Amino acid sequence: MTQARDTFPPAPQDDGRDMNAPIFRQPPLQASRQVTGQEPRLLAAGPDAGWAQHQETFGPWEPQRAGQGLLNALGASGLTGRGGAAFETWRKATAAAGSGRKGLLAARPVLIANGAEGEPLSFKDRTLLAHAPHLVIDGLLALAAALGQTGSGGSGTKGTGSRGTTMYIYAQAASLPRVQHALSERPDGKRIKMVQAPETFISGESSAVVNMIANGTAVPTDQRRRLSESGLNGRPTLVVNVETLAQVALIARYGAHWFREAGTPADPGTRLVSVSGPAPTRDVVLEVPGGAQLSAVLQEAGMESAAVSAVLVGGYHGRWVRPAAHALSPVGPPGRTARPGAGVIHALDLNSCGIQATSRIVNYLAGQSARQCGPCMFGLPAMASVLNRIAAGETNPRLASELDRLGRLVSGRGACRHPEGTTGLISSALEVFAGDFRAHLSGYCAGPGGMAA
Amino acid sequence: MKTYLHIDWTSCDGRGLCAELLPGLLDRDDWGYPVARGKTGRERTDVPLRDADREAAQEAVFLCPKLALSLLERRVPEPEQRTTGR
Predict the structure, then answer these.
(1) Element (H or E) spanning A239, and its range?
(2) Is A222 touching B (CB cutoff 8 A)?
(3) How is residue A278 annotated by DSSP?
(4) Across the interface, do B44 and A413 touch by the CB < 8 Å criterion?
(5) What mean pLDDT is predicted for residues A413-436?
(6) Which of A87, A375, A412 sits opposite B29 (nearest CB)?
(7) In chain A, where are the structural domains located?
């Protein structure tokens, strides 16, 4: 883990603090206006927006009054989750609302705003929480109200609205003071509880989130039943990414039609992306329209596609792609679409070896296994070890097929999707860096710091 | 409704009893953990059962020393994680 953090990607600036302290960067954020023509939405209130600035920008509003209409608007908007899985938000919300209605005693739903960002190359959620916490809180309150009304006893019951739903904001230590301040600034923030997320890769996986809140252990649990049926204390539970909630707040205010004015029919709205790359590129959070061209996003962040050999899209569970001719979208023809996942975009410069970069990431991922599930606990280190041997220049032609075999072996066999996420990354590397793999297996490496040519 | 053999990987220790009871359904991997034969993705965690395997699967559920197995009844098809947009 430390090796990966220290060498790839460039370790975040730590301001001279010790490396174990929570890292909190506030990268510059901007809507990618010049290239993609997107006006800021989520970030419209500007940097460090407080309660007054928030209300001035978005207008006064009572999120507690949201009801079934919000779920309908979410359906019409086509909003998908911004935390990685890109599942349709209305479907997820409706599932949780529906589960609450079953049985004699309506179980009160639980709604958790997930700001845990264990992905080392992701910083858009902490940036959003730092600059637009009120939009996230608006979305949390509104969705909680909608769930509470539809889930517990109908709209006529006294005390409907968000009173029925238990609310949490789950985020890493560095984000909590800002969130706490935002909650204290507004009249409706008192019922929201904050829970600190540990700084691990899997702490944001939804069952790990529920496990952390219930038991103080942020590792995934066996999901015999879905969280929307039986989550925190057996109650229907919805874990929603903080950016998704901020989008919910905008849709609740301005409607589905407005939301769809940005992006494409297949990928409506905007999304935040965390863009990083080789020096002198600086980490930046951009708000880009759905279906944006990857090359345009890179350009916005100050990189030319021609100077980039490959781009990691979607983070450590994402895929490597060549920069040209890919649109960022959760749906679309493979080969021309890169799934944004949680919005991570990391460029590799022309001189870096893709095999070595991938091998460092896989070592990190193997170290981040919760070591609960056998195939992950043994399979990921085995994959990392094979990849390390290839990266180090061992000229054994069987190594590539062994890597492939191990990938197939572990996929789909775990409480969470850490195994298949890791396998997906490796298979994209085998595809995109096919030439480099052949070179390595023949005993040379094109990148600097590799074995002697 | 369809019946699935659910493997709780957080409990499974790779003892291998299930693979002995259900040789046509389960193989063992390099470390002894069960692998559903011919299945991909999440069907390796919730393994669809043929009627012929039900009895043996029930036995495996009772005999698993780590209580890692259970039977699931579910409507098919189970909605997957991702759906396509419109």
Answers:
(1) strand A237-241
(2) yes
(3) S
(4) yes
(5) 94
(6) A375
(7) 40-259, 270-349, 354-441
Q: Which residues of A are less than 8 Å from B9 in CB distance?
A: 222, 372-376, 413-415
Mean pLDDT in residue range A373-394: 96
Q: Examine residue A419 and say whether the peptide bond preceding it is cis (omega within 30 degrees of 0).
A: no
| Confidence at residue A451, expressed as pLDDT on a 0 to 100 scale | 47
Pick the CATH number of A40-259 from 3.30.950.10, 3.30.70.2470, 3.40.50.11540, 3.40.640.10: 3.40.50.11540
Strands A29-31 and A284-289: parallel
Tens of pLDDT, residue by residue over B22-70, are 999 999 999 999 999 999 999 999 999 999 999 999 999 999 999 999 9
pLDDT, residue A268, reads 96
Q: At residue A365, what are phi and psi to the nearest 5 degrees?
A: -65, -40
**pTM for the model:** 0.89
User: Would you call A265 and B86 a contact, using CB atoms and an 8 Å cutoff?
Assistant: yes
CATH 3.30.360.10 fits A354-441, yes or no: no
Say if A177 is an interface residue toward chain B (CB within 8 Å): no
- Residue A33 has what pLDDT? 54
Of A153 and A292, the structure prediction assigns the larger pLDDT to A292
Q: What is the CATH number assigned to the segment(s) A270-349?
A: 3.10.20.600
Q: What percent of chain A has pLDDT over 90?
A: 70
> What mean pLDDT do residues B3-9 have?
97
Least-confidence region, from A340-344, A436-440, B16-20, B55-59: A436-440
What torsion do the CA atoms of A38, A141, A235, A92 make, to the nearest 10 degrees?
Answer: -20
**Domain boundaries in chain B?**
2-74
Whether residue A7 is predicted with pLDDT greater than 60 in this model: the reply is: no
Nearest CA-CA distance, residue A282 and chain B, Å: 32
In this prediction the ipTM stands at 0.90
CB A42 within 8 A of CB A82: no
Same topology for domains A40-259 and A270-349, yes or no?
Answer: no
B2-74: in CATH 3.90.110.10: no
**Which of A135, A181, A134, A188 is closest to A161 using CA atoms?**
A188
Q: Which helix (H) or strand (E) holds A138?
A: helix A133-151
B28 touches chain A (CB under 8 A): no
Number of cross-chain residue pairs from A and B with Cβ atoms under 8 Å apart? 80
Nearest chain A alpha carbon to B39: A412
Residue A379 · residue A408 · CB < 8 Å: no
